[in-house]
Amino acid sequence: MIASARMYSWSPSLIAAWQRLLGWVAERSGVPLDVLGPATEPALLEDLWARRDMGCVFMCGYPWVVRRERPHLLAAPVPSPSRYGGRPVYVSDFIVRADRGFRELPETFGGAIAYSVEHSHSGYNAPRFHLLPYRTPERPRLYTTVLGPFIRQRPVIEAVLDGRADVAAVDGYGLDLLRRHEPELVAPLRIIATTAPAPAPPLVASDGIDAATRERITGALLSIHEAAAMADTLEELLLARFVRARPEEFDVFLERERAAEAAGYAVLG
User: Fold this and answer.
1) 204 sits in which H/E element
2) Are residues 206 and 77 in the same domain?
3) Integer Cα distance of 262 and 256 in angstroms
4) What is the dihedral of CA 111, 115, 120, 121, to 10 degrees?
5) How far is C-alpha 125 from the geometric centre of its chain's CA atoms?
6) pTM of the full predicted structure?
7) Do 219 and 192 share a structural domain?
8) Do 173 and 139 share a structural domain?
9) CA-to-CA distance for 32 and 23, rounded, in angstroms?
């Protein structure tokens, strides 16, 4: 079975921290997990999520809820920054270059927006839902240019930094992690809007993994905040703890998708 934090491995120091965390989970649970890294992970997240040997893998809740055969939910992370309110949620931040002068989201309308992939909630579904109130019959499209897919979210950030895009929405927890691990990269950015919270990406296991094994992994995740040896790693990853994830919590992704489609805004732009 494999373990992967590919979703949030946005820098070398983050890769190392996630590998320590997942390695501890394997040891504590007694479940042998092959912790993947850049050399062994698929290039595309959808290829990772299609594997039948997932033992403990981060997966975005949006593609999880739309799948007919859903992987088993293990646990959800509770980010430690105060803006998450001690809940297993995350947000998307609309980012711009601070020196461009944009202060409010409508000031970017008519420009270029970048996105990662269409199956991303933080990079596509969430900003599309957030932008709904700004559309009018006279202005059904808000942006002249839509850049993407960039596949990963870090290249989306780079597109804003180098001026190819005026604005983009990125995973707020991921941005918080970059601010902790590579502050010089995100220093030129300004957040001009933030979406409504949504359930944080859960850790999942393939449907073929037996219930007893899944429960051992979940038990390790739920106890990690009590392990003194993991305190520094949790701090590095801006995590307070893990909690159980409930399937019904993820229906909000479908509700926001349907709202956009019903309004005729199926495609970001």
Assistant:
1) strand 203-205
2) yes
3) 10
4) -30
5) 12
6) 0.96
7) no
8) yes
9) 9
Q: What is the dihedral of CA 29, 218, 64, 135, to 10 degrees?
A: -130
Q: How far apart are CA 231 and CA 172, in angstroms?
A: 22
Q: State which residues form the domain around 12.
A: 2-82+201-254
CA distance linking residue 162 with residue 154, whole number of Å: 12
Task: Compute the residue count for the chain.
Answer: 269
In a 3-state reduction of DSSP, which class is residue 56?
strand
Domain count, the chain: 2
CATH number at residue 208: 3.40.190.10
What is the spatial distance between Cα 60 and Cα 165, in angstroms, rounded to a whole number?
A: 24
Q: Are residues 158 and 223 in the same domain?
A: no
* Three-class SS of 126-186: HHHHHHHHHCECCECCCCCEEECCCCCHHHHHHHHHCCCCCEEEEEHHHHHHHHHHCHHHH
Peptide bond into 149 cis (omega under 30): yes
Pull the structure tokens for residue 127.
């900003």
Per residue of the chain (269 residues), what is the pLDDT tens digit? 999 999 999 999 999 999 999 999 999 999 999 999 999 999 899 999 999 999 999 999 999 999 989 999 999 999 999 999 999 999 999 999 999 999 999 999 999 999 999 999 999 999 999 999 999 999 999 999 999 999 999 999 999 999 999 999 999 999 999 999 999 999 999 999 999 999 999 999 999 999 999 999 999 999 999 999 999 999 999 999 999 999 999 999 999 999 999 999 999 99
What are the tokens at 29? 């649970």
